[in-house]
Amino acid sequence: MNCSEYLVDFLIEQGVTDVFGYAGGYIVPFMDALYKRKDEITTHVCYHEQGCALAADGYARTTGKIGVYFTTSGPGAVNGLGGLADAWFDGFPIMGICGNVPTKEMKGFSGIRQNGFQEMDLVSMTRNITKYSVTANTSTGFVDIISRAYNMALLGRKGGVIIDFPLDIQQANIIGR
Predict the structure, then answer these.
(1) Residue 88 resides in a domain
(2) Number of domains the chain contains
(3) What is the pLDDT of residues 82-97, one digit of tens each?
């Protein structure tokens, strides 16, 4: 089982029945995993990434459940920040899942950009408007990252969380399950 398939299984196990998303190259493995389970979880396609995050926020407000959205990398992920901020300020649980470039193309520990197409440091950008912001940069511990993100959105005062999900990790087999 790869990380994308695990994440979809996890969401279904938690009772998530609807997700809101915008297609893009760096989120395709996750979208494929959603498609395989389309009878159990409905994907609502939005016309803009901001609409995905705001739809997830509206869903959380009206149902009392966690709202889940996905976008592609870079500017696509950044377009969802308004919905995350809304959830943060008003205390509603949403989870953003944002595809990103493969880990080998991401910024290294030295801070030197590796020139990944549409690479963004999403964790730094969302740290002040989320309860938890993380890059899943290895399949080891992925299970814990997903569980923690989901629980953080719902614990205490509810709010948004975001998972930066690199393409190679979406396709990687789960390790440490």
Answers:
(1) yes
(2) 1
(3) 999 999 999 999 999 9
